[in-house]
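User: Show me sequence and structure for the first protein, then do the same for the second.

Assistant: Starting with the first protein.
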Amino acid sequence: MSIELSIRDQLGFVRLDRPEALNALSFAILDQLGAIIDQIEAGIEAGQVRGVIFTGAGNKAFCAGADITELIGRSTLQEHAGAGIGQAVFSRIAALPVPTVSVIHGYAFGGGLELALACNFRIGTAKAKMGLPEVKLGLIPGYGGTQRLPRLVGEGRALEIIMSGRTIDASEAERIGLLNSLVDDGDPTALGVQFLGPMLKQGLPALEFAKQAVIRGMQTTLEEGLRIERDLSTLAYQTADAKEGMQAFLGKRPAQFKDQ
């Protein structure tokens, strides 16, 4: 397979393993990624996975984007279906109830950046370079880039990035909020573990409620978002973790969350 999944220490590690092609996304790889998400969802249900880290093999790229050789000579129906496949897989990543992070070491272009955008967080090393260059092929992003990027960096910046197709370096990406964290260098897997470490100490119900409050609220009005927050906050109070957290605070001791 061109994607590897390993699970250890309550983390799922997903590595794109096609370094000879800069970890480019073929439709077969998207199918493999969908199967891996099945395994991750099962691991979450079983209490074995509390966070997911996405990395790319090799020193040159996280993911250089779609496999262009597969995009030539298709029918209109095939083109439409192809965009639907990528969007569906990335939307499943975005919907995971645990924190997800992509560690960008090298190139993240086109579909590769769209994969990173589907994660909750993005870490970049100094070597990271990213962009949505589809307009240079006479195309536009089709795996969610035109929707997720403006929600992250704002409409004006997103339009400029998408319509120019230019490359963004790591320092700019951090400045505009495309990257959550910029580090000089390091092993991508270790960087992901370090970043998610503080979140893994929290109870999963609270993390999921917080994630849903933000994501759902961003898709509606402030008034409706406040209603969503109120409902989810009320649900959080009903959990055993909330009772434990408040008792631990009053007792001046670390909370022992059980994801309940």
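Switching to the second protein now.
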Amino acid sequence: MNQFVAILITLFFLGLIVQFTVTHKLKDRYAFLWLVTASAGVVAAICIPLLNRFAVWIGIAYMPTFAFLVTIIFILGLLVRQTISLSKQADRIKTLTQEFAVLEKKINELQKQTEGRETN
């Protein structure tokens, strides 16, 4: 029964990801990662007995502990990836702001030169 509930929940999550992708709420760049994650969740839910044996084989007596460990490692990896992406975006915004300021200064200088020529 627990396996059936786990499969239903992971299939629901997979359906949400597909829906978000189709409605363009989730960009293609991230959709693939989430589709793979949701698919892995469905496979893990189907293979719960195998995961129990694997957890015992590596020395973890309680399989949900293994599942939480894998989940935490995945979330940490995802956070690092998002932090790197945010850092790149911050650098791009800084560069764009600086370029905008330079262009704005040039426009102001050209306007002053044009006004100076018109008064002469």
